[in-house]
Design goal:
Largest sheet: 6 strands, parallel
Structural class: alpha/beta
Number of strands: 13
Number of domains: 1
Helix content: 25-40%
CATH class: Alpha Beta
Strand order of the largest sheet: 7-8-9-11-12-13
CATH topology: TIM Barrel
C-alpha cells in the first residue's frame, strides 16, 4: 500500500544557485490547434493591488524579500514560496528543484500574460486553462486556511477577479476562465460559482480529495450545494492531481523518482472516490476532468470497475442504481493526455470523445515547446478526425470555447489537418 507525502517532500531535491535559460526556441510546426486544459501561472507581485476592500488593503497577500534573498508570499503569519518545479519552462532539467525561485529566474511567460501568449504561439497552443501555483494552491485552498475568514474570502474573490479581468480578459480568445474554490462553506462556494458563471467562468478548480485537506469527504453529502451549482451552470469541475497537497509514494525513504512514477495513481484514486461517492448519480449532468493524471491507467480502471461490479450485491454499495460504475466513469469523466502513447492506443476503449490534451506549461512535467510534435508522434494510427477531437474538439465543446478558424491559416501546408478541422467543425459547429 502506498503512503501519502506532501508534494514538496515527495519531490525534495537539493537546490542550485545556477540559473540557465536555454536558447529561445523557434515556433513549432502546427499540426492542429491545441486547447491545453492544464497549464499553470505564477502569481505576479501586483496581483492584489487595488483589488481588496479598503478595510483589508493593508493585509493583502504581498510578496516580500527575505534576508536570505528568497522571495515569498506572506499572508497573515504564513509564508509561501514559488517552488522551482512550478516554473522551469526554458530551463535545463539538471537545474529543476523544489527550492524557492525568484521571479527573474523564471521565464517571463510564467507570470506575464503577454509573454504567455508568445510562448503559446511558439508551442502551437491556441487556448489554455491555467491553474494557480503555491500562493493559492491548485484549487485555491490556501485562502480558505486563513484565520480571518472574511479576509480569506475577500482574497479569493480578488484572485478570481484578477484571473478573469487581467489574465483571461486581456486575450479572451486564448484563455478559458477557471475559478478557484471557497472551501469553508459549500453554500457560499455555490453562490460564487453562480456569480462567476454569469461573468464568463467555464470551470471550477476543486480538490480531488477534500478529506485530505481536513474537510468532509465526498461521501458526506456536504458538497452537494456546490456540485448542484456546477451542474446548473454547466461549470466543469477540474480535479487537479496534487490539489489535496499530497501525492502517493511508497517507503518513507523512497527517492523522488518513485513519486514521479506514481503520480497518475492520484488520478486513479480520485476517479474511484468520485464514482463511488455517487455524486455523478445524484448530479448526472455534472462534468468532471481529472487533470494532469494522464490516461494510460484508465483502461485498467475500466476493467477493474467491471470486475468489481460482478460482486456488487455482496458489497451492497451499488444495488439497484440502474447504471453501472463503469458507465458513470465513461459518461461524466474526462481524461487529460500529457505523455501517454499507450492510452492513446487504447483511445476507443476509454472513449475518444472524453480525451483532452495538455502541455502543463511551465511545470517540470510539461512538454513546452514541443507539445505539438510529442502529441503528433503519439497519435499513432488515429484518424485526422480523431486527432482533431482530442487536440481541441472535445475541449471546445466541454468548455464552450470556440477555436478561431483563422488559427488554421498558420498551419504549415498540412492539408489533412485543415480538412479534418473543417469536417469536425461542420459536425459540431
Amino acid at each position: 500500500m502506498t503512503e501519502e507525502k506532501s508534494i514538496a517532500d515527495a519531490f525534495r531535491t537539493e537546490g542550485t544557485d545556477t540559473v540557465t535559460f536555454l536558447p529561445e526556441p523557434e515556433p513549432r510546426h502546427r499540426y492542429f490547434p491545441i486547447i491545453s486544459v492544464d497549464d499553470h501561472l505564477v502569481e505576479p507581485p501586483d496581483l492584489f493591488a487595488g483589488r481588496l476592500p479598503s478595510k483589508f488593503a493593508d493585509r493583502a497577500p504581498m510578496m516580500v524579500e527575505r534576508d536570505d534573498g528568497r522571495q515569498v508570499w506572506r499572508m497573515e503569519d504564513i509564508e509561501l514560496p514559488n517552488i522551482g518545479l512550478n516554473a522551469v519552462a526554458g530551463r535545463p532539467p539538471a537545474e529543476y528543484t523544489v527550492e524557492p525561485a525568484r521571479t527573474e529566474d523564471m521565464r517571463r511567460g510564467c507570470w506575464d500574460i503577454h509573454a504567455r501568449i508568445h510562448d503559446m504561439d511558439i508551442n502551437g497552443v491556441y487556448a489554455s486553462i491555467c491553474f494557480p501555483s503555491m500562493l493559492a494552491g491548485f484549487a485555491g485552498q490556501r485562502f480558505s486556511e486563513l484565520q480571518d475568514q472574511d479576509l480569506g474570502l475577500a482574497t479569493l474573490r480578488a484572485w478570481n477577479d484578477w484571473y478573469l479581468e487581467e489574465w483571461c480578459g486581456t486575450y479572451p480568445d486564448r484563455m478559458i476562465p477557471c475559478q478557484i474554490t471557497w472551501f469553508n462553506d459549500p453554500s457560499v462556494a455555490a453562490g460564487e460559482v453562480r456569480r462567476n458563471a454569469e461573468r464568463g467562468f467555464k470551470a471550477l478548480s476543486f480538490t480531488e480529495s477534500p478529506h485530505k485537506l481536513g474537510y468532509p469527504s465526498l461521501y458526506s453529502g456536504h458538497w452537494d450545494p456546490l456540485i448542484a451549482a456546477c451542474e446548473e451552470t454547466e461549470t466543469v469541475i477540474c480535479l487537479h492531481v496534487g490539489s489535496s497537497s499530497t501525492t502517493p509514494t511508497t517507503s518513507p525513504d523512497a527517492p523522488p523518482d518513485v513519486a514521479a512514477a506514481l503520480f497518475p495513481m492520484s488520478a486513479w484514486h480520485a476517479a474511484v472516490d468520485w464514482v463511488y461517492s455517487k455524486i455523478p448519480l445524484k448530479f448526472p449532468e455534472v462534468r468532471i476532468v481529472l487533470t494532469e493524471g494522464g490516461v494510460s491507467w484508465v483502461p485498467g480502471l475500466i476493467d477493474r470497475l467491471k470486475h468489481s461490479f460482478k460482486y456488487h450485491e455482496f458489497f451492497g454499495t451499488w444495488v439497484g442504481e440502474g447504471v453501472e460504475p463503469v458507465e458513470v466513469l465513461k459518461r461524466n469523466f474526462y481524461f487529460c493526455v500529457l505523455d501517454d502513447p499507450a492510452g492513446i492506443a487504447l483511445r476507443h476503449y476509454i472513449g475518444v470523445d472524453h480525451l483532452l490534451v495538455e502541455s502543463d506549461y511551465p511545470h517540470g512535467d510539461g512538454t513546452w515547446p514541443n507539445t505539438q510534435e510529442i502529441l503528433h508522434r503519439q497519435m499513432g494510427d488515429a484518424t485526422a478526425e480523431e486527432v482533431a477531437l482530442m487536440m481541441h474538439g472535445n475541449a471546445s465543446r466541454l468548455f464552450r470555447h470556440t477555436v478561431d478558424p483563422s488559427w488554421m491559416d498558420a498551419l504549415v501546408h498540412d492539408s489533412s489537418a485543415k480538412n479534418a478541422f473543417t469536417t469536425e467543425r461542420s459536425r459540431n459547429p
